[in-house]
Design brief:
By secondary structure, the protein is an alpha/beta fold. It is 42% helix and 9% strand. The chain folds into three domains: 163 residues, P-loop containing nucleotide triphosphate hydrolases (Rossmann fold), CATH 3.40.50; 120 residues, no CATH class; 125 residues. It is built from 19 helices and ten strands.
Length: 476
């Protein structure tokens, strides 16, 4: 193993000067204004350090609590020591848009605590606002000495209640606490198991007008997504004299070569699907889109047996993202559960995720299982998963957390020690309190989008655009 180079680490912009609010009279209105100013979702927090302790870990936990990540206070919750807690504070700050932190009762902070705040400020570029009660010039002098010793020398001091209140700013507006409203999606009825040629017509015959409109909307979305993707990703077919591979198609059809790209497209198409029925409609629409370009996209007949995106996944909605970020303050644990939710794959495969498996800007997760299992054998196509928008800060924070851990490198496991023992994993699932389909219904076979195959057809195909009128509705 190698020590991570500083070039791997994300750092924030140059921080603004520290704002020091000297509250001579310990005015309650100033403390109230500081709390009312806080709005974690808009990048502002206020923390009142736990009294009667000088622990550095407690100060980090106070900051996590101010961010809304307070599940560590629950009985039997995972405990975080000093260094992991401060790494978590730094990683969440860098990846969630936190820009301003007000710390109350700064006159009680020890030199070590002030030094930790200075390091946090330097690494993240956060605007640090300290509110201190200094009734006498001697108190102010002692505070300035501690600040100087902690390398907090670029200060802007503010005095007077009215001036301090103006510096703090107006109270935050809008929702500040509690989860977003519950998720809702129109439930689709059981869909026919017909192939792509008859699927849409069978839906029309078996469903009422409202159900068909919703199912057909998902079908059309899959068709449009396939056509759009193929416009920029269709590779030329292999030469006709190329030896046929094991997955060669019927009637001399030549296999699709960019399997990683195809797997990623299918994962992106279905990762936010609210149910397996929605997924099936999208897949059938995508198959029709491929067929319109003389491409045969074949997926397993029994999607539920295989699992994977859209089958054993849970959409990362605002409510799910809120639960992950508040219930799991450790970035590694939050990212591990998020990965279970948006991949729908097995724990054994996710445990092979390396730091290098997460693509740029945390948009793609590519797991190279073959090279990990069969050392020395040329790797096959990687297992590709799309990272939803709301899960990307979680994966980015986990990467940052792991890279700030001593003796780490990109080829090492991202989720190491997250799925290792049943007891640890059970605690992880218990803490998050979310329905995780791939845990409740594990599937030993490969995910459906990994088992999908595609061929270039050499024969004409009928038009199957969704603008075609469906078959007449049957009447009794």
């Amino acid at each position: 193993m190698t020590v991570t180079s500083p070039a791997h680490l994300v750092t924030g912009p140059a921080p603004p000067p520290v704002t020091l609010l000297l509250d001579t009279h310990d005015d309650r209105t100033i403390h109230a204004a500081a709390y009312q100013r806080a709005h974690p979702h808009r990048g502002r927090i206020t923390t009142d350090p736990t009294p009667h302790t000088s622990s550095l870990a407690y100060l980090a936990l106070d900051l996590l609590r101010a961010m809304g990540r307070d599940s560590f206070s629950h009985p039997d919750a995972e405990r975080m020591s000093t260094d992991p807690a401060w790494r978590a504070v730094t990683c969440w700050t860098l990846n969630t848009g936190l820009a301003e932190a007000i710390v109350l009762r700064a006159h009680r902070l020890t030199h070590e605590r002030l030094k930790r705040l200075a390091t946090w400020r330097t690494e993240t570029g956060i605007h640090l606002i300290l509110i201190a009660h200094t009734p006498t010039p001697a108190d102010e002098q002692r505070l300035n000495e501690r600040l100087t010793a902690a390398n907090l020398t670029d200060l802007t001091a503010v005095r007077g209640t009215d001036t301090i209140l103006n510096t703090i700013g107006p109270a935050a507006t809008g929702r500040r606490h509690g989860p977003p409203p519950p998720d809702h999606a129109y439930p689709l009825p059981s869909l026919p198991r017909s192939g792509v040629a008859a699927f849409r017509a069978d839906c029309w015959r078996r469903q009422n007008d409202l159900d068909f409109a919703h199912a057909d909307g998902q079908y059309r979305a899959g068709y449009a997504a396939a056509r759009t993707w193929l416009a920029g990703h269709t590779p030329p077919p292999p030469p006709s004299d190329t030896p046929q591979a094991e997955n060669a198609g019927p009637d001399g059809a030549t296999p699709w070569r960019n399997m990683e790209g195809l797997r990623l497209f299918l994962a992106r198409l279905t990762v936010l699907s609210p149910s397996p029925q929605h997924t099936l409609a999208r897949i059938r629409g995508a198959q029709a889109g491929f067929l319109s370009q003389a491409l045969l996209l074949n997926v397993p007949d029994d999607l539920a047996k295989h699992g994977g995106p859209g089958i054993t996944t849970v959409p990362i909605t605002p409510r799910v993202a809120h639960i992950l970020t508040t219930q799991l303050p450790n970035p590694l644990r939050a990212a591990a559960v998020a990965a279970l939710l948006f991949t729908g794959t097995s724990q054994s495969l996710l445990s092979m995720t390396q730091l290098a498996s997460v693509g740029e800007h945390a948009t793609v997760l590519a797991i190279d299982r073959d090279s990990r299992i069969n050392v020395g054998v040329p790797p096959g196509p990687r297992h590709m998963y799309a990272i939803p928008h709301r899960a990307r800060p979680l994966l980015a924070a986990a990467l940052e957390f792991r890279r700030r851990t001593p003796r780490t490198a990109d080829h090492l496991g991202l989720f190491a020690n997250c799925f290792g023992t049943s007891e640890r994993f059970d605690h992880l699932i218990r803490d998050v309190s979310l329905h995780i389909p791939t845990v409740l219904h594990p599937h030993p076979t490969e995910d459906w989008h990994t088992a999908a195959r595609c061929w270039h057809l050499n024969t004409p195909v009928p038009a199957m655009a969704p603008t075609m009128p469906p078959a007449p509705r049957a009447h009794p």
